[in-house]
Amino acid sequence: MKKIKVGLGTCGISAGGELIFNKFKEELRSKNIDAELSETGCMGMCYEEALVEIEDEKNSCLYSKVTVDKVGKIVNEHLINGNPVSEWVIKSNESCKEESFFINQKRIVLRNCGVINPTIIDEYISRDGYKAIQKVLENYSPDDVIDQIIKSGLRGRGGGGFSTGMKWKFAKQAVADKKYVICNADEGDPGAFMDRSVLEGDPHSVLEGMMIAAYTIGADEGYIYCRAEYPLAIKRLRNALNQCRNRGFLGEKIFGSKFNFDIKIKEGAGAFVCGEETALMASIEGRRGVPRLRPPFPANKGLWDKPTNINNVETYANVPWIILHGWQEYASMGTEKSKGTKVFALAGKVKRSGLVEVPMGMTINEIVYEVGGGIKNDRKFKAVQIGGPSGGCIPASMGDLKIDYDEITRTGAIMGSGGLIILDDTTCMVDLAKYFLNFTQLESCGKCTFCRIGTKRMLEILERITDGEGRESDISLLEELAYRIKMGSLCGLGQTAPNPVLTTLKYFREEYEAHIFDKKCPAHSCSSLISYQIVEENCKGCGVCIKVCPSGAITGNKKEVHVLNDGLCIKCGKCYDVCKLDAIIKV
Amino acid sequence: MEDVEILEEKKEILNFKVDLINKRHQHGSLIPLLQSAQDSYGYVPEKVIHYISELVKIPAAEIYGVITFYAQFRLKPMGKNIVRICEGTACHVNGAKTVLSALNDELGITVGETTDDGLFSLLSVACLGCCSLAPVMMINNDTYGNLTIDKIKRTIKKIKSEELCGVEYEKN
Q: Label partner for A129 (CA 20 to 30 A): which of A172, A244, A464, A530?
């Protein structure tokens, strides 16, 4: 029997996945076709959504950019006549149009995403699900698990990169009547959607990882702190938790052992700082999410002052795989100090934006050109922004840099949780730094003076630079403020907030200088520093720009070359956006 | 009692009450209670703050502090349709500013405001997490991707006309 899988992650739904799912349902019923219709999570190729996979015992065919209108033809030709509609197939057993996207990836965390139906626990079980926890309960002492995880080299995938095994060891050593494990699913970095995709596409792998952690440290209660902006992830998690309780995978005497454990979901209420572990725990306790001084570390004094182990979604999803395949296999991938794989949310000016998982040690160029397929519209690759508001920009000239915690830290950026935004020559680096500073400034909880006021002052300086009012002393002032904010802040938010400014100053200093001294924006992005001109040869006098201009700056008769009065122009860019003849340029 | 009256104003409040009773004895119940209150009312009314304060024995001032700390909570009612514009990095580099100014023009309001007719509220969010569709906005629970000025105008006009037709239909 044929199985039809429709990608229903958030991107799939946005691209009309649900309508397509319903259309298939209707077609199957009306044409009386015996086929199984199922939903699945993110397949990674967000740029080709909506995706539908049709498979039988031997073959599988992946259709891309499916719309409701295409469903009828797919059903008739593929399901009824047995001939796939090859022009819409992106990947099948025989051919793959986007081969380089797949062959360079190694899917461990995403092993089930886009493969199984995340709402059915048996599909997870059929792919070795919950075997790792059984193996642990039957054969391993907590110290054995810690030994395995330390040797595997797994490091915290939330961004910090601390050894997961060591973290568990500290929490295990702490003596208390009650311990907790927490899963940090407060994925707040703008441009990052790795954890969301895992929770939506394979929630059970995260739950299994948490169970193993709980057994290891001796906890009987767990929390998943998930942001409320991810309603689908929360829904799938609730469903997965209920299934586990019904099967006895959560509760008392799990798999006939003495291990008791259950998990609760806490919905975040929209505060970026709650991604910081001590702030997150304050938020679970019902207070304002304000970080506190460490030590004591959560391993000794965490949630409600009890020893607590906290890891992020991706870290937990790695754990069952390591237990089943052995630490040697995991540690065989990657570089000397960064083992395994890393999931990245690839976005920005790249042809194939989506969710990818690559072995550590892959270079940035390989990710951009091989996996990502190069830059949109074949423009010039300028830089990658890695690590979100805490990270930085790495220029294209350093494209041979390997994905490795320590190598990336040396550039001034950080690995972060996995947001990877590709930038081309139309992106202004000063504007991008301003964008991130605006974000951290808004999200600073206000506890530390340097973070609260320093980021505000830095933002003001960046604003005046992009407005064309930058002063000669501004660059050194930015550097001084950045240094003081890093030194004077309690948590990761403040300590890393200046990174986007510092890395752009390090690698793109000439852009800052062009803004300040020449009053020019080299990327033609900052509106105060550009002016619009009409290219006479291209202007056909259609009048579209005259209609949209709010300040009456463009004049001219029909079918005659129009004239733009720079004195009246308010640089809104509306004419530039509407002109289809490239007759208006930015200079 | 005045507080009881506000709780009986709407049917949905029943859920809220049940939640109150179930949760008040648990650790850390304040944020889930406020979330439940906002689900019922669309915002957190002042009276509800006092009501919760008495139930969970936390001073109203502290509850107010929690409400204003988190971006999710609102102290004022919102418009009928909530437009959320994504300001994530991918959207930013793909022209979120143009999208925002088109929305400002079309709705006549800026971020954080509600239209006079109460039909629309405009909010900005840090990231909607569908970066491959950038620039993106959400209206209520529907996501609109690969936005252009035209697409925004068409979408808003469509919702406006649906709302207006609905009103006329009811009158007739």
A: A172
CA gap A123, B24 in Å, rounded: 38
In a mutational test of the A interface, the residue from B19, B27, B66, B131 whose CB has the highest number of chain A CBs within 10 Å is: B131
Chain B residues touching residue A343 (CB < 8 angstroms): none
How far apart CA A9 and CA A14 sit, in angstroms, is 9
CA pair distance A257, A134, nearest whole angstrom? 9
Residue A525, SS3?
A: coil
Residue-level pLDDT, tens digit, chain A, 587 residues = 889 999 998 888 888 899 999 999 999 999 999 999 999 998 888 888 889 999 988 888 999 999 999 999 999 999 999 889 989 999 888 888 888 888 899 999 999 999 999 999 999 999 999 999 999 999 999 999 999 999 999 999 988 899 999 999 999 999 999 999 999 999 888 888 899 999 999 999 999 999 999 999 999 999 999 988 888 899 999 999 999 999 999 999 999 999 999 999 999 988 999 999 999 999 999 999 999 999 999 999 999 999 999 999 999 999 999 999 999 999 999 999 999 999 999 999 999 989 999 999 999 999 999 999 999 999 999 999 999 899 999 999 999 999 999 999 999 999 998 999 999 999 999 999 999 999 999 999 999 999 999 999 999 999 999 999 999 999 999 999 999 999 999 999 999 999 999 999 999 999 999 999 999 999 999 988 999 999 999 999 999 999 988 888 999 999 999 999 988 998 888 899 889 899 999 98
Q: Which residues contact A420 (CB under 8 A, 6 or more apart)?
A: A344, A345, A346, A347, A348, A367, A384, A385, A386
Quote the tokens at residue A473.
């002393």
Closest-approach residue (CA) in chain A for B34: A269
pTM of the shown model:
0.91
Instruction: Please give the angle made by the CA atoms of A332, A336 and A342, to the nearest 5 degrees.
Output: 65
ipTM of the complex: 0.83
CB A507 within 8 A of CB A394: yes
Q: For A348, which of B34, B93, B136 is closest by C-beta distance?
A: B93
Q: Is residue A534 a contact partner of residue A562, using CB atoms and an 8 Å limit?
A: yes
Separation CA A336–CA A361 (nearest Å): 9
Cα angle A183, A187, A188 (rounded to 5 degrees) comes to 140
Q: Do B31 and A47 touch (CB under 8 A)?
A: no
- Spell out which residues of chain B touch residue A425, defining contact as CB-CB under 8 Å: none
* Set of chain B residues whose Cβ sits within 8 Å of the Cβ of A421: 89-90, 93
**What are the distances in angstroms from CA B60 to CA A3, A35, A115, A301, B67?**
56, 58, 49, 28, 10
CB atoms within 10 A of CB A16: 15
As a whole number of angstroms, the distance between CA A42 and CA A198 comes to 8
CB contact under 8 A, A46 and B149: no
Beta bridge partners of A222: A181, A263
Contact B132 A353 (CB under 8 A): yes
